[in-house]
């Protein structure tokens, strides 16, 4: 009854929907001479969190950690604090020395550096344990004139940008100087670009440069005035963005008169060097020399968006094949075409039927965790906002249901309320509840009953999708709408109940929430090794489980004669098989994505950003193409031709998305969703 890709694609749509409800990107900002560290909402530029600093605590480096803490240097030491301001650990500076670097490494540890004689570079664990210490004598007498932001290259060597000597020194972990690169200005930091080159901030020289680390060649110099509308003061930290742009901290501490000259303290430029965002507010912001992205939605931005770019396509292609749940197909006179239709259908159903809805449910639960976590980070109560979102989701489902029989947003909106009472339970408790639900307790009660009463064969009266076929094939638009909205929805909900999808869905909601709590979708920092190992184990166990369950199911069914007992065992067995298959698909996708993140899909970015619009419009147009009130293509198109129609429709939607986002920020329906989600919130 369900579309084979529907739920996988709907999962991506849901994540897109909820990301519309999320606030914009958060930024962690600090600066020498500013008496606080802050987190701001990028869109509104409002401070959402701040941590006071004592006088003289010069903070030139602050970083958001993967586990949601704040790491910062403050001249006399380096600290790790929680969002609530609790100090987790503090490493004090030696007498006469000062800490000027605090950053997160790719391996999950922290890099902190201390100016002094000698200068010291430390690799520190998230628990505050010093793993490695490297001493290096810079030859610069005054510690404050030595460096600010130390970095590492691909080989693990340290990149030390020296302030007084205007050069970048590459040293190994033993403190041996490997090479020196002369720079056109007193260096503040070096950062790696996506193209393999580096950018270096040249401080009071009012410029930054792009250079090749191996050869030392300066490839490009950007001076004050080269960017339209920007005057460089002191070029401090440079932070490359994921789309090829660059954040530039324009520190204004060396010239007190700058504050009156309307010069931005922080700006973002795109890959073409054009300003796309800035902070120019000396009243509410101090001098900014450090920036870090608060990655509250790491997976939504990287992993999930790729799914939106690719998987949302499948709902169009597969719904066309199924004629939008109107399983009416013409006979073909061509044996070849008939064989092709059959093989296309069987192949896709074998690969994805029953597993895609499980993926959807898993991601739904994970999305809930992200929303709940983000609101907690802002000190907000998420419960009421979430339930309001479910109500809105229900309304979207009702709208889509009048064109598409078997709409499932309604089901997920209703079951989604189960996450509210379990959200604060312990992990172990939630895991046990999820396990019991996955075992299909109602079906086991039926099994026990069938064993005790062998002749029992109670019949369940329920609505069938076939009840709407006369209206789908008829020529009355209004009769089609009524049948879809009433009978189609009742058939969909009843099918979900009788086939164990209600219990399975609730279980997977909770499992997705638990995976989010444990950080098992976040492949970054300290999580990398742990997360990769976890999903490797999942794949290792899921593959043989799926194979065994698949080849045993027909044997199990053949041993049962009682139709009532067979139906319950089929529900239980299929639920387990679909779970194993889903885990295999998810683990394989994650591991492949992390190993080699796709770049070809960039053309589909606009398409993925308007997934709700894509989904609803394909239901509306698809019903017109195939149902009786419209073109009645179900009478002439088999699986192969319907697939070709779906491809054409997809190309047109991608083209429309590109046009739309040249003029607007969000998709049409995404805009409505966003405004309704945050109605009443300033």
What does this structure look like?
This protein is an alpha+beta fold. The protein folds into two domains: 6-21 and 298-677, no CATH class; 26-294, Neuraminidase (6 Propeller), CATH 2.120.10. It contains 19 helices and 24 strands. β20 and β21 (246-251) form a beta hairpin. α3 runs parallel beside α17 (611-626) and α3 packs across α18 (639-660). The radius of gyration is 29 Å and the shape is elongated.
Structure characteristics:
682 residues, Neuraminidase, 4-stranded antiparallel beta sheet, 43% helix, disordered N terminus
Counting H and I runs of at least 4 residues, what is the number of helices?
Answer: 19
Low-confidence stretches: 1-23, 297-302, 304-308
Strand order, largest beta sheet: 3-2-1-24
Report the biggest beta sheet as strand number plus sense, adding barrel if it closes: 4 strands, antiparallel
Quick one: how many beta strands? 24
The radius of gyration computed from the alpha-carbon positions, rounded to a whole number of angstroms, is: 29 Å
């Amino acid at each position: 009854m369900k579309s084979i890709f529907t739920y996988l694609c709907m999962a991506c749509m849901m994540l897109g929907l909820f990301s519309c409800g999320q606030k914009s990107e958060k930024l962690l900002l600090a600066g020498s001479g500013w008496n606080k560290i802050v987190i701001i909402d990028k869109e509104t530029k409002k401070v959402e969190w701040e941590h006071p600093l004592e006088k003289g605590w010069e903070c030139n480096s602050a970083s958001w950690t993967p586990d949601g803490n704040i790491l910062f240097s403050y001249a006399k030491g380096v600290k790790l604090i929680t969002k609530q301001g609790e100090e987790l650990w503090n490493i004090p500076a030696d007498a006469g020395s000062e800490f000027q670097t605090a950053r997160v490494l790719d391996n999950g540890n922290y890099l902190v550096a201390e100016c002094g004689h000698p200068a010291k570079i430390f690799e520190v664990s998230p628990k505050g344990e010093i793993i490695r210490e490297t001493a290096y004598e810079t030859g610069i007498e005054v510690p404050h004139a030595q460096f600010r932001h130390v970095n590492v290259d691909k080989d693990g060597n340290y990149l030390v940008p020296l302030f007084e000597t205007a050069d970048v020194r590459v040293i190994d972990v033993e403190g041996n100087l490997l090479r020196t690169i002369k720079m056109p200005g007193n260096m503040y930091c070096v950062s790696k670009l996506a193209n393999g080159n580096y950018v270096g901030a040249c401080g009071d020289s009012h410029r930054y440069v792009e250079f090749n680390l191996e050869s030392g060649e300066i490839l490009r110099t950007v001076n004050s005035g080269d960017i339209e509308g920007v005057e460089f003061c002191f070029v401090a930290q440079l932070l490359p963005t994921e789309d090829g742009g660059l954040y530039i901290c324009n520190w204004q501490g060396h010239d007190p008169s700058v504050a009156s000259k309307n010069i931005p303290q922080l700006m973002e430029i795109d890959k073409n060097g054009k300003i796309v965002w800035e902070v120019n507010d000396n009243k509410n912001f101090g001098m900014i020399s450090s920036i870090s992205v608060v990655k509250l939605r790491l997976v939504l931005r990287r992993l999930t968006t790729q799914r939106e770019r690719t998987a949302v396509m499948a709902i169009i292609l597969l719904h066309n094949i199924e004629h939008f749940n109107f399983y009416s197909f013409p006979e073909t006179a061509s044996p070849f075409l008939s064989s092709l239709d059959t093989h296309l259908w069987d192949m896709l159903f074998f690969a994805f039927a029953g597993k895609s809805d499980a993926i959807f449910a898993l991601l739904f639960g994970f999305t809930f965790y992200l929303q709940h976590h983000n609101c907690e980070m802002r000190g907000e109560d998420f419960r009421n906002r979430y339930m309001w979102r479910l109500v809105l989701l229900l309304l979207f489902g009702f709208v889509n249901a009048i064109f598409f029989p078997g709409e499932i947003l309604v089901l997920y909106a209703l079951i989604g309320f189960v996450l509210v009472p379990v959200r604060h339970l312990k992990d172990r408790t939630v895991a046990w509840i999820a396990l019991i639900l996955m075992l299909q307790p109602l079906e086991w009660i039926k099994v026990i009953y069938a064993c005790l009463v062998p002749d029992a064969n109670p019949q369940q009266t329920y609505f069938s999708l076939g009840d709407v076929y006369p209206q789908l094939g008829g020529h009355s638009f209004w009769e089609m709408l009524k049948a879809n909205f009433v009978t189609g929805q009742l058939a969909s909900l009843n099918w979900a109940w009788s086939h164990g999808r209600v219990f399975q869905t609730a279980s997977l909601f909770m499992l997705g929430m638990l995976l989010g709590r444990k950080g098992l979708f976040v492949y970054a920092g300290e999580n990398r090794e742990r997360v990769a190992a976890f999903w490797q184990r999942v794949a290792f166990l899921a593959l043989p489980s799926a194979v065994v369950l698949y080849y045993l199911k027909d044997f199990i069914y053949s041993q049962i004669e009682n139709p009532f007992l067979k139906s319950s065992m089929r529900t239980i067995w299929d639920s387990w098989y679909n779970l194993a298959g889903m885990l295999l698909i998810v683990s394989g996708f994650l591991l492949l994505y992390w190993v080699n993140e796709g770049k070809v899909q960039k053309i589909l970015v606009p398409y993925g950003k308007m997934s709700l619009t894509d989904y609803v419009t394909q239901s509306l147009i698809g019903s017109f193409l195939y149902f009786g009130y419209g073109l009645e293509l179900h009478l002439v198109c088999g699986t192969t031709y319907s697939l070709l129609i779906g491809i054409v429709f997809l190309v047109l939607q991608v083209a429309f998305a590109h046009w739309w986002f040249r003029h607007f920020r969000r998709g049409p329906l995404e805009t409505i969703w966003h405004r309704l989600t945050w109605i009443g919130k300033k």
